[in-house]
Amino acid sequence: MSEDKKILNSLAVTIGVLVVIAIMISVVATNLVEDKVDTAKEEMKILERIKPLGELATTLEEAQKASPIVEEPVVAVAKEPATPEQIYNTACMACHASGVAGAPVMGDVASWAPRIGQGKDVLIEHAIKGFKGMPARGGSSQLSDEDVIAAVEFMIEKSQ
């Protein structure tokens, strides 16, 4: 009888070990499949969240293809070019009126003298491309080079 007990105990241990191995394989397989499914779901959520709200139609044909409601083109009315003072007031004044981040205050001859001494071309380059704490185009990306040049010349004129 003791031989039979030993065999049954060995058999029970073997079956127990096999059951534990089967459970471990099942858990690992489930995690691998769930990770792939979760990743795909997450990617879909991200793509849905960042999709564009619309597209820009640059021609009447594109607009009509995107929306058959569009019948006549919208005509943009050109506004008059801004004066140098208007450009200064909208783009430059925030820093150059108070000296924020070391910007020379317009009209302060002492702070402008070394800068003007570098030459107008250097000042214009710094204004267009940005320099130290000053962002390119004074932070107004819609300004053309001509607008920036006009504003720089305006500030130089008022600061000599």
Description:
This protein has 160 residues and is an all-alpha fold. The chain folds into 2 domains: 1-77, no CATH class; 84-158, Cytochrome Bc1 Complex, Chain D, domain 2, CATH 1.10.760.10. The chain is built from 6 helices and no strands. It has helices spanning 2-50, 60-66, 84-96, 109-117, 120-129, 145-158. Helix 3 (84-96) packs across helix 6 (145-158) and helix 5 (120-129) crosses helix 6 (145-158). The longest helix has 49 residues, at 2-50. It is elongated and about 115 Å long. The model has no long low-confidence stretch (mean pLDDT 83).
Q: Keyphrases for this structure?
A:
160 residues; mainly alpha; Cytochrome Bc1 Complex, Chain D, domain 2; 0% strand
In short:
The chain is mainly α and 160 residues long. The chain has helices at residues 2-50, 60-66, 84-96, 109-117, 120-129, 145-158. Helix 3 crosses helix 6.
The pLDDT mean sits at 83
Number of helical regions = 6
Would you tell me the structural class of the helices and strands? Answer: mainly alpha
Q: Rounded to an integer, what's the Rg over CA atoms?
A: 36 Å
Percent helix among the residues?
A: 55-70%
Shape annotation: elongated
Please outline the major beta sheet: none
Poorly predicted ranges: none
The span between the termini is 115 Å
Count the beta strands: 0
Number of separate structural domains: 2
Range of strand content: under 5%
Order of helices and strands: HHHHHH
